[in-house]
């Protein structure tokens, strides 16, 4: 009870606690980001083989996961992909262990990607920002789950152009539940439901208009579900700003990739990270953005 009282009375303690919690969850998100796509691919392959009544004809994958018959978020234990060294608890402290180990495996001295501590750090900072903005409430706990889901979806989509239903669908229902319980987010259940429906239909309509006009697929169904989830959390009123923000940032990023890095403009680019980023921006600065829009473009 003393800790709860301290969280409620001390904003500094709340922010620091949320930062630490975000760092710890960020370590778990690294596991989710790497393993969930592999788990889904294994499951899809198994379903296809069962449907066709054939054995798996593909050669063994070169991925380290192929060595493990049981492969999920719990098993196998975290290990070095190069030497299979089992990572000890003190070697898995977010950010700090990376610094202490010099960014290398303690056993084989292979380099550890800077991406892992970066995700942990970013997740910690975003968690602290949510706590600072919304205070010590049940809503903040729900919004932390929302934020962590967006982080995982962003990186998975960036890596694989995949937005797993295992994350987007629960995120959508959680948004409706949060607003149904009226936890103080200021979004009515009606607006949340309309937001979920409109979020899906807007991108679904764009998808088919673009496909009929060009013969190409402009985005995936996962993007529809992610925008539906954002609408379920923040209401239908947030959809237009989210679409505008994500489209602008996506266009600028794509142009920079083409000009500065010589990216082939015919290669598809994931849209999920920009939707997720715009959704988080609206979560934190939504009222200010809406006020700016009304004052400068409406009145």
Task: Outline the fold blueprint.
Layout: H1 2-9, H2 11-52, H3 96-100, H4 115-134, H5 138-160, H6 165-180, H7 189-214, H8 221-234, H9 239-261, H10 272-298
Helix pairs in contact: 1-2, 2-4, 2-5, 4-5, 5-6, 5-10, 6-7, 6-8, 7-8, 8-10, 9-10
Write up this protein.
- The protein is mainly α and 299 residues long.
- The chain has 2 domains: 1-133, no CATH class; 137-299, no CATH class.
- The protein is 68% helix and 0% strand.
- It is built from 10 helices and no strands.
- Helix 1 (2-9) crosses helix 2 (11-52) and helix 8 (221-234) crosses helix 10.
- The longest helix is centred in the N-terminal third of the chain and has 42 residues, at 11-52.
- The radius of gyration is 21 Å and the shape is globular.
- The termini are far apart.
- The model has no long low-confidence stretch (mean pLDDT 88).
In a nutshell, what does this entry contain?
With 299 residues, this protein is mostly helical. The chain contains 10 helices and no strands.
Our count of helices gives 10
- Quote the distance from N terminus to C terminus: 49 Å
- In terms of per-residue confidence, which ranges show pLDDT below 50 for 5 or more consecutive residues? none
Largest sheet: none
Record field, number of beta strands: 0
Class inferred from helices and paired strands: mainly alpha
- The helix-strand sequence is HHHHHHHHHH
Radius of gyration: 21 Å
Shape: globular
